## 1
Amino acid sequence: MNNRERVHAIMNYEKYDRMPIVNFGLWDETIEMWIKEGHISADEAKGFNGGNPPPDAMKRLGFDFRWGSRFSGKTGLDPAFERTVVEALPDGSKKVRDSSGVIVLQMPDAGSIPAEIDHLLKDRKSWEEHFLPRLQFSEDRIDFELLKKIKSEQDDREEALGIYCGSMLGTIRNWLGLTGISYLWVDDPELYDEIINTSADLIYKCLETILRTGIKFDYGHFWEDICCKNGQLVIPSVFDEKCGPHYKRITDLLKQHGINIISLDCDGLIDSLIPTWLNNGVNIMFPIEVGTWGASIKPWREQYGKELRGVGGMNKNAFAKDFAAIDAEIERLKPLIELGGFIPCPDHRIPPDAKWDNVRYYCEQMRKLF
């Protein structure tokens, strides 16, 4: 049984030979740390980053594959904004306009997400001048040469192949900022709707074009990140009204092409938004962050039944401790695995305090026990 077959079997509650050992990638700083410690060579890391980690290193750790989309059209701004230094500050910090038109404060040697200072997208004028022209569909958004290669190899493929399905609100939140998107819903509801609809239509057209090639994708994968540790960053009823129909339209398209496993990546406490996703065709929650709020597939399964599946839910903080902490975390995962329809995965990218030997031990034990 290969990993592609295992994913389908687990998510369809069928028999499988073993649990695949899955990751969500690494922080870039984790790669740097492991290079310093001698676990990864600098040459091996060339051309790779935390979201796309060095494959040989991940295999040495014991992982089978990384969960997430594997092919994507250009579903966002095209062209993206050119990165520009707006202002250099005396302390070495810089105000930088990033690829989304957001001015952020970049501090030297900082590894966290930079603070947002200002946003180019504020109103209809900035939308029509700078953003709307960058969200028009053309077939140039699709890498047909890569698709041709994927199609030629699909009969021999052993790994599950995902297709990226975009973001209904999370990317737009990035463009506007949390304050901006919250006020826009009240101050200019027509523009709020237009931005969501324009972005969703572009995603749909990209997917429709890709799927027409006849490639057999194994799962669809959305991204949102519209929740934090205390809950959602949008009123659930607004999200359901504005975004639910777009999810339904896209998941219906996926199902027409035989894709019934549909994953959603959203960090934070996502509970209040699960009904919108589940009612509109999304059936896998990811990465189920344990965090400070103890997210778990168990209460969701009790509430929603077997239609809700999951990938994630393994507390990555255990990697910074010792083998006993890893054993305890695996013991906690056992009854969740027994529920079926669930693949454990570190609940976000593996951070730089993770010890190489702990990660390797986790993979060894998971392979041995499951």
## 2
Amino acid sequence: MSNSTRGQRQRRRMTTLSVLALAGLMAGQAGASPAKAPPDALASDPARMGWMVGSPPPADRTLRFDDGSYFRFPAMRWSVAHFRQLMPTVNVSRGLAAPQPLPLALREDIDSLKFLPLGRSEPMSWQESLLANYTDGIVVLHRGRIVYERYFGVLKPQGQHGAMSVTKSVVGTLAAMLVAEGRLDPQRRAADYVPELAASAFGNATVRQVMDMTTGIKFSEDYADPKAEVWAHASAGSPLPKPKGYRGPRSYYEFLQTVKPLGHHGEAFGYRTANSDALGWIVSRVSGRSVAELLSERIWSQLGAEQDAYMTVDSIGTPFAGGGLNTGLRDLARFGEMMRNKGAFNGRQIIPAAAVEDIQNGGRPEDFAKAGYKLLPGWSYRSMWWVTHNEHGAYAARGVHGQTIYIDPKAEMVIARYASHPVAGNAANDPTSLPAYHALAKLLLGSAP
């Protein structure tokens, strides 16, 4: 076998080693359109395509983690609702208490709601936008009641779905909670809490800079470049055996210690998944719990959730803080409703109100502007949440392929959406998502109390 062939095979294997690590793709980056238009939402419906049906499934409908077939479109539309079947995970327990019901107040006027997509001259209906964005499931809460709920493909109310980089916002919320409780000082250096990071680019960054992704680190997420740091991150985080001769880091923690500096901390926002992993390590060290354990103890078991959540893990069981969370859709909405209510839900104050208020206030728009998000003018980033600074004070958790928690405090609205758009970057679905959310907020805002 030639060195060229061996190298190609190893790169292909590295691609499949940790596709979940690639869920740290820039949520909101401009994703290049495929050379050939992908099948639309109806043609790519995973239930219609019959992925993984049978005992065993037919060879042409069998998906595997180790060869990467599970994350190729359109197969990934099945996989995002079945990650636990394909890779190692750790549970996020909902506890033993009874679920807290979400009251129903379903409306019939939402599907026909019209809005104007960004950059277009013709309006679109809410119902049409769901197909345009390859929606797998969506729940809308208004004043804590379900006013809209739809499921498509293989996602069911009792199912779970990958949250992708929405995970970052959940981890950011855990950190904000520890800050509000005085257990984590955002002005101290990351290395003060995790000495193992001292020699890395994170060592002299403040915790706040890590939380807001204003660190100066060398971490390219250019997947066309085989030398980009994202490949080392993916390989380190993979739970699969490493290729023969591999000498790189073998866990997320080992990888973080290798991150080099680039630029200066605190100068600009730069979306890098490595920040979320570093924050997860800090949170775990301060709390004495893994991210999954802390999430269960402090939030998930307090929400009255219907289902356990779970997180994907690396080879030593470290939860992937950058994109490994999987939840039921209604439970994702419960989390959003807790945030809308300043950290209160299910009859208790789960997150300190000060933590939520700090997130809502946002970061520095001038720092965010340097990242060049053309579809997000005037936004900012705070504790791993995206803040719109619009007239409603809306803010969001965002993940690749269309995962979203969108919170509009003025309209008393929470939207939780799971999706499997063929293009990873949210720039592909924002034009038909963001104006739809705002139009719905205006509709609900005009509703009688």
